[in-house]
Amino acid sequence: MALPEKPAILELRQAVRRWLASSPGPVVLALSGGADSLALTAAVAAEAPDVRALVVDHGLQQGSATVAATAAATALQLGCVDASVLTVTVGGSGGMEAAARRARYEALDRHRGDATVLLAHTLDDQAETVLLGLSRGSGPRSIAGMSAIDGPWGRPLLGVRRAVTRQACTELGLTPFEDPHNTDTDFTRVRLRHEILPLLEDALGGGVAAALARTATQLREDLMVLDAMAETLVRENFAEPEVDVTTLTSVPAALRRRALRLWLLRSGVKALSDKQLRLIDDLVGHWRGQGGVAVRSGASDARLVVARRRGSLVLEQEWSL
Fold first, then answer.
1. CA torsion, points 240, 277, 282, 132, in degrees to nearest 10?
2. How far apart are CA 232 and CA 285, in angstroms?
3. CA 246, CA 312: separation in Å to the nearest integer?
4. What strands lie across the sheet with 149-150, from one edge to the other?
């Protein structure tokens, strides 16, 4: 489909073109039928060859199958070579929003083949993510936001405002699906979008969303350097199955915690919290003879404990009876 040369469409195509230049290889599109993903689909289909669209039907609303089928048909009209509807079952812990996200990402990952899945997150989504991270107080990693390239996920529109994707749909004559969940204030992100961010923009004279997105970029750049240093520290000082504490005591705490986190995750620890990590770091930096720190493992009938034994950190397994 030949796209008109109008401002919003051109901005989207330029963003997609830059992303594709930095990350060559096959791509597929995650399409919901909303304005962001429809606009992304149009731009990617115009810039990349043989693009497939994947439409996830969560089955959470009456008529969701029709919405998904319409989105798939629109993807073909926009130039995608194929469009598949993936039906998922939403369930599990963490609330509906988290469960739907988990089911969606799992389905996309299963059906992507060797391609990168392009997601339609915008600068506004990035700003919301930073604010959510700030509210949780869980450290710089959570307020570093989303990455443009985070295999197998790609986000070409992180520098584009949501208003641009809506304008692009208008320029293309497309009618996006308006998900009622996006206006349901029971969801924290919806309150951020419709209440908190507009209030901040008004109180601080505008530019807040862009400033938050810039902050995320700066933090990701810093984290990349620290993570590389932590990788070197682990490679040179962390032996299996224990770590000599004396090799870590002179290491700055921020770097040491990153190295400990990397070591633990590679050793099978799951969902490590900042509180747990700081308690584990105290076994090195503030040793007072305290006991070990329990952490989650992948095994349902066992737990892991990080303890200090004879001058070394060890990861011990405790079995439930």
1. 160
2. 20
3. 8
4. 82-87, 52-57, 27-30, 116-118, 153-154, 149-150
Question: Is the distance from CB of 57 to CB of 86 less than 8 angstroms?
Answer: yes
- 79 neighbors 1 (Cβ within 8 angstroms): yes
Q: Roughly how many angstroms between the first and final C-alpha of the chain, as a whole number?
A: 63
What separation in angstroms does the CA of 77 have from each of 74, 127, 144, 226? 5, 32, 36, 45
pLDDT single digits (tens) 193-207? 989 999 999 999 889
Please tell me the pTM assigned to this model.
Answer: 0.86
pLDDT digit string (tens) for 136-161? 876 788 889 999 999 899 999 999 99
Q: Are 260 and 279 in contact (CB under 8 A)?
A: no
- Element of type H or E holding 244: strand 242-244
b or e along 291-307 (b: 16 or more beta carbons within 10 Å of the residue's beta carbon)?
Answer: ebbebebeeeeeebebb
- Measured between alpha carbons, how far is 230 from 308 in angstroms, rounded to an integer? 21
- d(CA 206, CA 297) in angstroms, rounded, equals 45
How far apart CA 234 and CA 253 sit, in angstroms, is 14
Cβ(111)–Cβ(84) below 8 Å: yes
The beta strand positions in 90-161, using DSSP E, are 116-118, 149-150, 153-154
As beta bridge partners, residue 308 has: 313
Judge whether 270 and 261 are in contact, CB under 8 Å. no
- Among 294, 300, 290, CA closest to 277: 294
In contact, 304 and 295? CB cutoff 8 Å? yes
